[in-house]
């Protein structure tokens, strides 16, 4: 889930004050581990009636958590009280993985009292402390991974400026990748810490933690999204993200010890009052914003259901009955799940006539999901091309929003090209066919259709393959329409996937056809090497673009090629494609070719190609000076707002 840029300033004040007191009291001893909470979240609209059955069940649940030391021996405890759906209460207590049982018990004992004080009459609430967190709800949430816009964003707190940014961010990234992988791979306690030392900076400490009930994959997604949010701290050295399903902390300590030892918080009553007032004001602003969004959403649904001017140009697009889709997907069963992303889940379905379909079920509460739905329906229904995924229909019923596509039996490109076994079966002729198909799809978007479309999220997981291995571009939720004479645009909300983003888009929010060309170049190089762009930092200590540029200049270009292709008789064609890839990822947008030029280059003699200039992102992190002389630092990993799987 991405951090909401419109979050109220009062909430930010609350977070900063918490962090200031953490720094001040870092070495202040305390007789108890039960400090004041770092944060609490009780903004749910759902409330229970005082003296009701729900309140009784809630108090029984909290009492059980605070008194059951045996159950807490594993460091976490889930429990439910009640039998009927209306009044049943579910609770989950989670302690940090490296603290003693006594500290865990003391922390949770305080949490069970504080959560009722800070969140009176709420049917859903969560509270975070340094050593533990506690959540209860009216629905069973234990195995759900929540890190998307249908919940309040995680709380991200930035720390001090970095002394040596370039060195720091490369080491930081490698450290956190190892910690996240260790936490996600844990069989029971999804928790890990790590540390390293950076000359001139100090000791770097990291901590990653997930709810014990979510899957390995969901834990990784949650923590990498959290890492992406910490990277928004710009030129600062880390921070913390507190979420419903995962927590991530990163800190540099020049003189002190670990962040996971002897950190205590002393918050005077006066400051607590300020925090409460700020929280109440932030809650007021949040409610006002949500009320406005609901009104806008209702207007969109009404317009689309009534078939007003939004759908006038493509009335042939059918609205499919929600019950029909439920039957086709087995009531959206997990066995039919093809993938899961930031906006919703994709399922395989079979209609009564035997036709196979892919159904994207957008998140019910996601504001971004509604915008993506509008965008994708409006755009794809007007676009018809062999190398674009075809939209068969859509559906709206209440909060449900469905997009129905043709089913792509071979899945997504990343599912094949990055799998050691499946990749060995992708001979160069097939890979070249895929490259050509992606190029032709982009050419149609940029120059061939009556609309000029900028996709903005071209990546391997958004390239789907049919049974004949024909490449088709998918996911147009982030796409934008350009006027005939328009060449570029700017946005304050950068969306997409680091690693595939062009430098001008990642740093300044400027996007154009040339930013799609950059993404195409990265995919082309990944297809040739058979490796993900973010794997090169771990293997070679440099980005994919830095690595291929170095080999190209040293005359060792074949060292970059997937070993399965080395014996190919098409070495000349492979090297030409690598040359084209380097032209597409050049630092300056003006130096990159157009898509029509790329299609021509794929069939011309390599001797006719211009020499490429140095690509962007030749360091693990890239520093750019804006017009206001502000340093912007952006990760080049593959953290993303979505995690699409083959479908």
Description:
- It is a single chain.
- This protein is of the alpha+beta class.
- Among the domains are: 307-406, Phosphorylase Kinase, domain 1 (2-Layer Sandwich); 413-635, Orthogonal Bundle (Transferase(Phosphotransferase), domain 1), CATH 1.10.510.10.
- The protein is built from 18 helices and 23 strands.
- The strands form 7 sheets. A 5-stranded antiparallel beta sheet has the order 1-4-5-3-2. The chain has a 5-stranded antiparallel beta sheet with strand order 6-9-10-8-7.
- Helix 11 (428-448) packs antiparallel against helix 18.
- The longest helix is centred in the middle third of the chain and has 38 residues, at 269-306.
Mean pLDDT: 76
Measured distance between first and last alpha carbons: 22 Å
> What's the architecture of the domain at 413-635, going by CATH?
Orthogonal Bundle
Main sheet record = 5 strands, antiparallel
Tell me what portion of residues adopts beta-strand conformation: 15-25%
The strands making up the biggest β-sheet line up spatially as 1-4-5-3-2
Which superfamily, in CATH terms, is the homologous superfamily of the domain at 413-635? Transferase(Phosphotransferase) domain 1
Number of strands: 23
Give the CATH class of the domain at 413-635: Mainly Alpha
- Shape, per Cα inertia axes: globular
Query: What's the total helix number?
Result: 18
CATH fold-type name of the domain at 413-635: Transferase(Phosphotransferase), domain 1
Helix content: 25-40%
């Amino acid at each position: 889930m991405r951090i909401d840029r419109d979050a109220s300033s009062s909430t930010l004040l609350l977070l900063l004050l918490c962090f200031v007191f953490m720094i001040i009291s870092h070495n202040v001893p305390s007789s108890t581990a039960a400090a004041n909470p770092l944060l609490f979240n009780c903004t749910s609209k759902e409330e229970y009636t005082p003296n009701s059955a729900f309140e009784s069940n809630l108090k029984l649940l909290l009492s059980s958590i605070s008194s059951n030391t045996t159950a807490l021996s594993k460091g976490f405890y889930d429990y439910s009280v009640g039998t009927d759906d209306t009044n049943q209460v579910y609770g989950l207590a989670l302690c940090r993985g490296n603290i003693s049982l006594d500290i865990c018990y003391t922390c949770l004992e305080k949490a069970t009292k504080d959560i009722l004080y800070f969140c009176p009459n709420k049917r859903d609430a969560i509270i975070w402390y340094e050593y533990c967190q506690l959540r209860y709800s009216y629905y069973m949430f234990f195995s759900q991974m929540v890190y998307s816009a249908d919940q309040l964003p995680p709380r991200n707190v930035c720390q001090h400026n970095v002394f040596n940014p370039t060195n720091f961010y490369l080491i930081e990234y490698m450290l956190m990748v190892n910690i996240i992988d260790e936490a996600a791979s844990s069989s029971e306690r999804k928790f890990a810490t790590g540390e390293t030392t950076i000359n001139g900076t100090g000791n770097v400490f990291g901590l990653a933690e997930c709810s014990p009930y979510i899957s390995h994959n969901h834990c990784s997604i949650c923590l990498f999204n959290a890492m992406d949010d910490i990277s928004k701290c710009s030129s600062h050295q880390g921070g913390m993200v507190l979420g419903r399903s995962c927590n991530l902390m990163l800190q540099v300590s020049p003189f002190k010890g670990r962040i996971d030892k002897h950190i205590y918080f002393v918050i005077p009553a006066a400051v607590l009052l300020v925090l409460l007032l700020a929280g109440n004001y932030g809650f007021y602003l949040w409610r006002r914003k949500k009320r406005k969004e609901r009104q806008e959403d209702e207007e969109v649904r009404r317009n689309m259901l009534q078939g007003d001017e939004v759908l006038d140009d493509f009335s042939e697009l059918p609205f499919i009955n929600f019950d029909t889709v439920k039957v086709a997907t087995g009531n959206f069963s997990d066995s039919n799940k093809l993938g899961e992303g930031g906006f919703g889940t994709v399922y395989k379905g079979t209609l009564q006539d035997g036709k196979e379909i892919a159904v994207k079920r957008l998140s019910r509460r996601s504001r971004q999901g509604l915008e993506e739905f509008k965008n994708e329906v409006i755009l794809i229904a007007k676009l018809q091309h062999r190398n674009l995924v075809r939209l068969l229909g859509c559906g709206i019923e209440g909060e449900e929003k469905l997009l129905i596509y043709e089913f792509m039996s071979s899945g997504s490109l990343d599912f094949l090209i990055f799998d050691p076994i499946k990749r060995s079966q992708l001979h160069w002729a097939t890979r070249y066919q895929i490259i050509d198909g992606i190029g032709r799809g982009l050419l149609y978007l940029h120059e061939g259709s009556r609309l000029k479309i900028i996709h903005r999220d071209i990546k391997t997981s958004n390239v789907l393959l049919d049974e004949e291995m024909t490449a088709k571009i998918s996911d147009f939720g982030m796409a934008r329409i350009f006027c005939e004479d328009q060449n570029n645009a700017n946005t304050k909300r950068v969306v997409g996937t680091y690693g595939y983003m062009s430098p001008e888009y990642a740093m300044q929010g400027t996007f154009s056809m040339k930013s799609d060309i950059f993404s195409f170049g990265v995919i082309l190089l990944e297809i040739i090497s058979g490796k993900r762009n973010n794997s090169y930092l771990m293997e070679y200590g440099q980005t994919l673009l830095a690595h291929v540029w170095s080999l190209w200049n040293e005359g060792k270009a074949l060292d970059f090629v997937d070993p399965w292709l080395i014996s190919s008789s098409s070495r000349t064609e492979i090297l030409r494609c690598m040359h084209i890839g380097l032209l597409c990822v050049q630092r300056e947008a003006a130096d990159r070719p157009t898509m029509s030029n790329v299609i021509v280059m794929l069939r011309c003699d390599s001797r006719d190609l211009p020499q490429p200039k140095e690509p962007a992102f030749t360091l693990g992190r890239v520093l750019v000076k804006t017009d206001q002389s502000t340093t912007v630092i952006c990760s080049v990993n593959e953290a993303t707002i979505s995690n699409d799987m083959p479908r």
